[in-house]
Amino acid sequence: MDLSKIKLVVSDMDGTLLNSNHEVSNLFFKQFEDLKKHNIMFVAASGRPYYSIIDKLSAIKDDIIVVAENGGLVINNNEQLLSTHINRNNLYALEKIIDANSHIHPVFCTKSKGYFKSNSFGYISVLSEYYPTFKVIDSVDEIEEDIMKVALYHSEDSEKFIYPLVKSFENDFLIKISGKNWLDISDTLANKGHALKLLQDTFNITEKETMVFGDYNNDLEMLQLAEYSFAMENAHENVKQTANYSTKSNNDFGVEYIIDKLLKAKI
């Protein structure tokens, strides 16, 4: 594994760069300074909204590229490179299914905030960890901004209890199980792979020069665009089958473990 040619490092956030307490390690921030010295670009690619990613990485926010909302939004140093929102034509049918199943807690995601349904009141503390800027609504008709993504939360298992109810919408939306408790619905072009390909083309970076880390199904497309793709030890089985390599879990500094090898290869 020759890491000496790497120019771009892309990491998912939850379950990957963040530990189970939703924290970024001090070690990573130290390593980031060394990545900068070697002119290696870093991209935070997450299902989280832009403002939540920036909150977690505030110390380095001016020096990174952010791929938010599973690829629906790409921002580099305050310059918006990509924005893909949902066509509302089929959104009301989806909303009816969500409203008919009280165990599903939706977040309608716009660039500026997340919109929670009023009947999810008991889950606001959980939802706001990922969407700290939010407003409570009764209907999507109250949302005037473009909706970039609908994130659906289930307290037990999104794949088991949400996916069967929304899979019929796969012809209209991109539906991704993005975590144990989360399922994301977005425009068919709003995925992390589409965003990564844009960045590779923009900065003239090849797959051989790209390193990617991921743990769940919303990472699959971007893992396929890097020769040095890594599945976390805690990753979904689909991710382990897709990635070319593996690393330690997010709680065992799996990303930092490989970045250390990358930095040593640059010496």
From TrEMBL:
<keyword id="KW-0378">Hydrolase</keyword>
<protein>
    <submittedName>
        <fullName>Cof-type HAD-IIB family hydrolase</fullName>
    </submittedName>
</protein>
<dbReference type="GO" id="GO:0016791">
    <property type="term" value="F:phosphatase activity"/>
</dbReference>
<dbReference type="InterPro" id="IPR023214">
    <property type="entry name" value="HAD_sf"/>
</dbReference>
<dbReference type="InterPro" id="IPR036412">
    <property type="entry name" value="HAD-like_sf"/>
</dbReference>
<dbReference type="GO" id="GO:0000287">
    <property type="term" value="F:magnesium ion binding"/>
</dbReference>
<dbReference type="InterPro" id="IPR006379">
    <property type="entry name" value="HAD-SF_hydro_IIB"/>
</dbReference>
<dbReference type="Pfam" id="PF08282">
    <property type="entry name" value="Hydrolase_3"/>
</dbReference>
<dbReference type="GO" id="GO:0005829">
    <property type="term" value="C:cytosol"/>
</dbReference>
<dbReference type="InterPro" id="IPR000150">
    <property type="entry name" value="Cof"/>
</dbReference>
